[in-house]
Structure of ABC transporter ATP-binding protein:
Amino acid sequence: MSVRFENVSFRYPGTTTGVFDIDLEIATGELLAVIGPSGSGKSTLLKLLSGFAVPDTGRILVDGKDVTHLPPHERALGVVFQSYALFPHMSLWRNVAYPLKVRGIPKTERQERARDALARVGLGDFAERAPTSLSGGQQQRVALARALVFSPRALLLDEPLSALDAALRHGMRDEIMRVQRKAGIATLHVTHDQEEALSMGDRVAVMSAGRLEQVAMPRDLYDRPASRRVAAFVGHANLWEGMVVAPGLVSTRLGELVCDTAGFATGADVIALVRPEHVVPLLELPSGPRPNVFFGHMAEDRFLGAVRRCDLEVGGGTVRIETSIRAAIAAVAVPPDAIRLLPPESPSPTRPAHTGNPS
Ligand code: ADP
């Protein structure tokens, strides 16, 4: 029940956009969440897996079988869309049973399997109801039951929660994860909501300009982003440009930072990443100069409930702070082990001029 993209590239005919050099494996039972800015290629990845676009180069394997040139209906994939796309005048069980009907399964078996699938999403008692009498969250659970009823080879989730309000969305995250885990099925989940991706994904893939920028477990992605682009896209970040001036010392516009410079030579340009919640607010100015302690002018100070987000202007730069401390902040300390050095931004990946498809 695994999914594999092998060196897949696809360009929309007559354009330079699409997805490029995609190597990706989703293991049996794994939920891989895909995030990235608008236009980065997330939907194109889904189209390629579902069969609505055919790669110019590379192969797509489902369960080890090459499906690259199979039409969508022969791929046996379950799909849940943002819009539930239920038939409004059909009972829930008939909606869920529809993929079985298309496959020629006899009515009694259809009914039984549809009722089982509805029970799995907690709607066993609603089988005779019409979708119009349900809430958005319930309708999305019906769509999930319908996607899984024919034991698909993989599950595709296309922004499944974005039509729901915040409270429902959180509950549905758990619900989808529970059902997906139980089904033990490889799942590709496309979302623009990074919190959803971090909380639901076994691994998260970040796309940028049609390429996979990084694929990692959520914590690794947040703590050890591979590039400035990933650091800036996933969570909030202080990103200070600088240069390694000696082993263990980086010069930035804020001043000098003591940190681990392993992997970077003296003279190398770097970007220092510090998550705002790792900056330590100090309530008093230190008596003498101390490494990695900065003070300046508080340019922004926003109370957001559980956290307070401040911007401290220091020299030529800004230190963004997230803290639950409410007292006046006199200075900040940046612990050396909270600093991660990244290579300077490479220009956006160049796209191949031509990928071999004459169209
Ligand atoms: P995302 O889902 O991350 O927003 P898409 O996969 O929709 O990104 O788009 C990737 C790139 O392909 C974008 O540059 C987009 O403009 C382009 N694109 C998407 N669909 C088409 C299309 N039907 N024809 C031409 N270009 C397209």
